[in-house]
Amino acid sequence: MSTLVCFHAHPDDEAIATGGLMxxxxxxxxxxxxxxxxxxxxxxxxxxxxxxxxxxxDRRMVELQEAAKILxxxxxxxxxxxxSGMMGEPENENPECFWQxxxxxxxxxxxxxxxxVGTDVLTVYDDHGGYGHPDHLKVHTVxxxxxxxxxxxxVYESTMNRDRIKMMMAAQEAGELDPATDKALAxxxxxxxxxxxxxxxEQDMSFQIDVSQQIDLxxxxxxxxxxxxxxxxxxxxxxxxxxxxxxxxxxxxCPGITGTGGPAPVDLLPGL
Length: 272
Fold this sequence. Notes:
There is one protein chain. The chain is of the alpha/beta class. It has a single domain, classed as LmbE-like (Rossmann fold), CATH 3.40.50. The chain has helices at 13-27, 56-71, 103-117, 129-132, 134-150, 162-173, 179-187, 189-192, 215-224, 234-237, 240-247, and strands at residues 3-8, 31-38, 77-81, 121-125, 154-159, 207-210, 249-253, 264-266. The chain has an 8-stranded mixed sheet with strand order 3-2-1-4-5-7-6-8, with helices on both faces. The radius of gyration is 18 Å and the shape is globular. The protein starts with a strand and ends in a 6-residue tail after the last strand.
């Protein structure tokens, strides 16, 4: 049995980016540990989700615990920082936020966790945080530094397949998608237009993991984050077959390696 640690920025990131890997590793008998840098306090809650007097951070912790159980992970471990919000916003200047954290101190916090749980494989984000969110960028730098401190050599960067996203957007523009999928993609069209900032080109990826057998668990885990992913969200509006097409593969880079010629299909990441 190996120990997989998935390091994420906010609750719900784990389900979207590595939910399939987590569920697959757990089903194969490996230990799955989820570490989250913040409680996602700066998210925008879905209407009517928060209870009387309930903070968004508290709600998202409940959702994170539910999602972790669905995916077969242990009780989530929090790194203890505050959500940084988006770049240029006042929240990004908060000295308690993850973006403002001293990189070495944050890496030491994570390294102590990696050592304590006996980490064999660590996942972080790619070098631009998938899409440039400050907390995602920080996960990348802090995660790699912590791995060096803890002596973890199997480190992989969760990413998105930029080419696949472009194909879906081109299909929408050509009118080739069903109405429900078209509506779902239209919700995120303003963000998705900046494709060159999303994920990684397929030719530069290292590994791809087929998580089609875990797609229902991944959908359940994403649905558990009700404060952020409501029934009318981009993710959950998709018909089942389209959701599977978008999320039945998870993609990973090896730090510093490009021009691989495309991702190698693997059952689980090397080290598991």
